[in-house]
Amino acid sequence: MPVFQLKPEVRFQGSSAAIKRPKEIGYFSYDENHEYHQDDRSLRYYYPPRIGADLCRGFESFRQIDDTKDDHLESLLRAIVHIEKEAGERCEAELITWRGMLTKIMATPGDWMLGSGRMNATLFQGTIFIEENHEYKLRSRAQQHSQPTRPGMHSQEMMSYWGMPNFNLLYPANRNEGYKFETLSLIPHPWDGTSREYIENREREMVDNYAQYCSIVRTGIGKSRLILGGEVDAVIGAKPESKDSPIEWIELKTSACIRNEKDMLKYERKLQKFWIQSFLLGVPKIIVGFRTRDGILDHLEELETKNIPGLVKRKGQASWDGNVSINFTAAFLEWLRTIITSEGLWRIKRTERGQVIEVEQLTTVGHGGILSEDFVTWRTGAVQPANEQQESSNQINHLG
């Protein structure tokens, strides 16, 4: 079985591998019923929440989506088909996946000892498609939720509702948690088009996680071209009409107030995941809501995504290195492309405390349900890469 060695870490140190700045090439929305729409109806706008707000409020009426059904990459692939139809050419990439999958890979250097996980992969038309292993995700979640709540602590469900990120990388997802903090911080229209009444009543709004705006970006790390999809929390101001203009996205996070060095180290480790998630989608700013142990919003802090690795190196305990994360990811993806060279279902896995990532081929035909029938039909019947289109055109002109 092919394995990728995680140690020694020194081989990933030094200047970072080449990076291609993420650029949005498409998007889609899930509406309030979690139905797919090829538009931006669920795009939200940032407006600061009230300090002192109770993050526990409304937990009893929280409307949470049932994600026990395995949706594979269906929505992402559906959006890619739309992009390709509009562009008239294939979205060329070595890897297509949700942001959450690459977050797990990229966070491995900060999680050498405890990380574990399972992913499924397949090869189609020269591209590796990766998804989370759904059964493993559900099993890991059930195991975590079965653990007794420590005395004086709130439940896992309550802290997820607050916005305490679940960075147990057993089951990364394309969506973020932190639904109450998002509801307190977002408005459905730009500020000048939103009523004062709505803004002031956000604390009373029913919270749900059905509606989402998902951005699809083209990026690259090292020698691998990537297409990633993931939820974006909001934009500051308005989204520019020009596709070439930068988008002032923000990511919303929460963390416990820092009381001592132990809390500071925990926060520093969270910052690695904050940074990776925003880095991968090209989100330039992160707004962190600090909360008390009882879930009261205490204060806000704005972070520039690009400055986080330097901040940790200069002022923190240097528990992680951004260049190591980038170089590890570049090396792993380049290696993975030499292993997954045929179709079928592949399993990417790391056991808890394991020092290697293993890749195993489970079947030699098909795609294990990772790819939707509509996507395969579209790719095999309708779309051609731009160079193939030109060759076909030249042949027709020659015959004419």
Task: Explain how this protein is built.
The strands form three sheets. This protein has a ten-stranded mixed beta sheet, sandwiched between helices. Strands 11-12-13-14 form a four-stranded mixed beta sheet. A two-stranded antiparallel ribbon has the order 4-8. Strand 6 (117-124) and strand 7 (127-132) form a beta hairpin. The chain is built from eleven helices and 16 strands. The protein has helices spanning 74-87, 99-106, 134-145, 156-162, 179-185, 196-200, 261-281, 308-315, 322-339, 373-381, 386-399, and strands at residues 3-5, 19-30, 36-37, 45-46, 95-98, 117-124, 127-132, 186-187, 212-221, 224-231, 234-235, 249-256, 285-291, 297-304, 346-350, 356-361. The termini are far apart. 38% of the residues are buried. Helix 1 (74-87) packs parallel to helix 10 and helix 2 crosses helix 7. It is globular. Residues 165-176 and 389-400 have low confidence and may be disordered. The chain has one domain. With 400 residues, it is of the alpha+beta class. It is an enzyme of class 3 (hydrolase). Its EC number is 3.6.1.-. Its cofactor is a divalent metal cation. It is found in: Nucleus. GO terms for molecular function: metal ion binding; mRNA 5'-diphosphatase activity; nuclease activity; nucleotide binding; RNA binding.
End-to-end C-alpha gap: 53 Å
| Order of strands in the sheet with most strands | 1-16-15-6-7-5-10-9-2-3
Shape: globular
- Beta fraction of the residues? 15-25%
Question: Major beta sheet, specifics?
Answer: 10 strands, mixed
Overall domain count? 1
What's the total number of strands?
A: 16
- Category from helices, strands and their pairing: alpha+beta
Enzyme class: hydrolase
EC number: 3.6.1.-
InterPro entries: RAI1, RAI1-like_fam
Main location: nucleus
